[in-house]
Queue: 3 jobs
Job 1
Amino acid sequence: MSKRLFSLTVKSTVMAVLVLVLTTSAFSVANVQAAGDAVRSQAVILVAQNDVLNVRKGAGVNYAIVDRLDPHAVNITLVGKEKMVNGSRWVKIRRSAGGVGWVNARYLTETVTPAEFCADAKVTTLLANFKTALTKQDGALLAALVSPAHGLNVTYLRTGKTITYTPALARWVFTSTYAANWGTHPASGLEVKGSFHQEVLPKILDVVSNPNTSATCNNPATGPKNYQFYWPFQYGNINYYALLKPGTPGVDLDWRTWLVGVEYVNGQPYLFSLLQLFWEP
């Protein structure tokens, strides 16, 4: 079954004075849980494959470790208490073996199954609004779409750096001249430096404005390539859409894909990540 997604065929399967720091890691998580809202079960994110998420006796790294969570653990139950410790939000969870413990909320997101995500009309609306924000260069709209929990994590080059934009920073990306370092280009071997508006925006518009672009749920669709790609391990519990602009017939290698990661906050989908793929010589 297919549907329309901002004119794509969908297949199921920052001049203001700008003093900011764009880091290669996510910002401290604010308390985004509204009082009285139902709390969805949580899933682990942003933990490396050879690592674990420590569960501690109290809120903060000075407390003893009482349990460990797998990097892809899901269905973690919050028990309603949270504390801010040195700028980080810690939440209390129920341990699978019994009892409770505390974890840093930066490493948690709401559990959403792939089937639930791919069928969610709210995600279709999110992506349509994302296209509108890009084409109209509407910073206020883009800011409203970015995850208030983890920001928008942009990876312009597959093996490059990830730059995180909080909603407040996302508001200015269409006007800011701040030059981020996106990493080394696979063809030239040179560092790519430039603003979101200069470097990233044209490449996203190249995809979302193309009438032949297709969107595939939780499948990293690409054109011909000479490398293997897998959805980043640390994003394992983040669902995504692959927006593929196919190559020109007879050329084929000018395809481009943007993977749009989405996380849920209080049951609503928000933009979590952008990752670009293209032919690399």
Job 2
Amino acid sequence: MTTHHNRTIVILMVLAIVVVTVVLLILSLTRTKGGGDGTDTGLFGDTSATRSYTPPTTSPMNPFGTVGTSSTLEAPSGPAPFFRLVTPKPVIGATIVGKDTGGVAEDVRYVERDTGMVWDTTLAYLNTPEVVSQRTIQRIGEVAWAGNGAAMLARFTDRADGQVVYGFAGRFAVSTSSDPASGAIVRSPTLEGAMLPINVITAALSPDGSTLFYIVPTEAGSVGYVEPVGGGTRTEVWTSPLRSVTALWGIAPDIYVYTKPTSHGNGFLWDVDPTRRTSSILLGEQRGLSVRPAPGGAKILYSFYDAEGILTLRVLTVATGEVTYLPMPTHTEKCAWGPSARYVYCAIPKRTLPDDFLERWYQGAYRTDDTVWRFDTDTGASDQLIDPAKATARQLDIVDPVIGPTESYLVFRGRTDDSLWALELPRE
């Protein structure tokens, strides 16, 4: 009887130890998952503070440092992580602005999707964004930048059904004044510009932001004009029976116009000379053709479906006609040139793209999970810079990539939720 009683006591003690151990383990895991106080702060930590998610620095997908997010709710401080979510608010257009502050400094300038307000925040350090323009533009759908962020082109609709499309082109004018209390110089930027004709098909700013080219529909097709930004005399430089086209600036003063990409037809690229009011074909008979000129327009990155139905990347040197092959399949809207026109940075989908990718992607019915690569168009070398899904556990369908004037940063937008991300680029 005593032996049986003792055995029962031993079993109960062992069970008690096991229960206590399990409880302590669960509490430990709960604290680790949250912000250290037992609360779950989400995938990226507490975005109202300065915490950041830090993967192991020895990870092959994290060769440059830590990963994290910056906040617009409080004023964080310190060096920015090498890869981060710039703002939790949806963004529709961003660029990188070089600043003259006694050294090399760059800001990211972006437009809030919901308000149209323009903000600046530094890339190298965490801080609170500064408002650049409080001008409200509702239902904004597209933004382009030029002149180191000094000129802005926006397209928006007047109502939710998007039937009427308006355009606005303007430049930021900065006035200075003295603060009466501190005597400090206060810079007050304002956005000044003019509306474009209704239902503009496409528009492009010259690299310095001084000149605007836009195409409007006509009964016979379309017509293109150039005019100074902010208003002035417009000049007709292009006519076509086509309406489904996109414009980009080429080798100054020339403008590139190409047919909007489709998986079901061949595309063409024209070089429009606004001085002579003539045009010539640079590329043609390419299914799904899409282009992205390098700064200055001397090289053109283009994608198209090859004979096997694979979306292929090429680089055309305009002066010589030489074509260079790039080894990864993607769409040019996922690519950006560096300022020297040597490196191309592209988001490369992990999965093989379907034959009807373009239509499904434009309609929002297909999403990609991308990695970021750099291609050297001189040597043919290619390097993977980051896999966002491994760095943040978040798949990104990358669009609107932009490289800064010093080629130190890449910013891009996540297409699914219009999130804005910044990646510090490796040094040579």
Job 3
Amino acid sequence: MRNGVSERANGCGSSSRLDSAYPRGSGLSCIAVCGGKSPQRRALSNSGEGFLRTNSVDAVTRGAGLVHVRSCVAAAAVMVALAAVACTTAYADAGSGTFSIVAFDPETQELGVAVQSRAFSVGAGVPWAEAGVGAIATQANTNESFGPRGLALLHAGYTAQQTLDLLLSNDTGRDRRQLGIVDARGGAATHTGEACLDWAGHITDAGLSAQGNILAGADVVSEMVRVYRSSGGEMAERLLAALHAAQAAGGDKRGRQSAALLVVRPSDAYPEYRTRYVELRIEDHPSPIEELERVFRIHQASDLLRAHLRYAAHFDSLGNMEAALRERQRIRETLQGTVARGDANASTLNALAWSCATANLYLQEALEAARRAVELEPEDSGILDTLAEVLFRLDRKTEALDVIERALKIDPGDAYLQRQRRRFRDG
């Protein structure tokens, strides 16, 4: 170890004896990875940082919960993925510097990737994830096929480390690749090729992988991990906090251009969440992380709030009151945080107030949000209707009627507002 950086002589980070490490029945025999002397890899030391690195793939098929692939269909899918990997070469220029973090939340089963780069549209190629399967960041001299092919391997039961080894096993461009993988059991694996441009390196921790190349220094990666671990809120917020911390530590030394946030979450009732619970991309912006946070806050107050209501109802139906309470607490945090920040627009405040009112949640806080929205857009009849709805549910019927009359003066022929007036009068 030199200067807090450990160097390992195996570009794929694994043993070359892989035949016993993979599920029988998958159609795979002994596969040699990076035979002979291979490039050195760089990883931040775990000493003093509380980081854990796991690189061994010895006999992991026993006692680790690994699914043995017995289905011919699954085996065929794996072989297609491996055959495609064998033919891959470089897909992007070697100068694409990037920092990213890949994570798994064991409480919610969410998987996520956050990334920033001085390259256009980093979200189109780096982040990949599927709930119950895993998450991947493929960068540096990016091989975008590692995303779908890696997910196919993870879906077939391979661990994060096994998947990384297989993807790199026949990759002639592995010295220029950087790859972080986290599986749905919390296993993590990372690779930084020797030819990645300085500063390049990574940290692998339980349920987390952070990596970057062409960075200002090692602090960019270590700060991502530190802030992600110490931050509160839901996964998307912690991932965003990690990006901010990385940028504050120097970030990509060439500058900033694009950023992306991808979070997935299991759901049978809403299968779309399995591949895009949160999916936001900033393609080209002078301050992409700040812009990513701005659009996330809008998403959080609308679509994500609706998702929390759905999960709360789901957990209620299962009798899991603790999980249902957690989802509702996320709604309250969003509501309080949005009002406290003071920079939310009328549409965001209105969406929050309406969602909470119609769910009979946090009505006093919803009233503050609704009033703020009306202050910003006093001639919007829909926003006035939201304020009236909140007041009505607080049993302040006279005030609700006054507000709905204001809305009707703006849109006197609106049939919905007329029904609202009758409802408030009769209620």
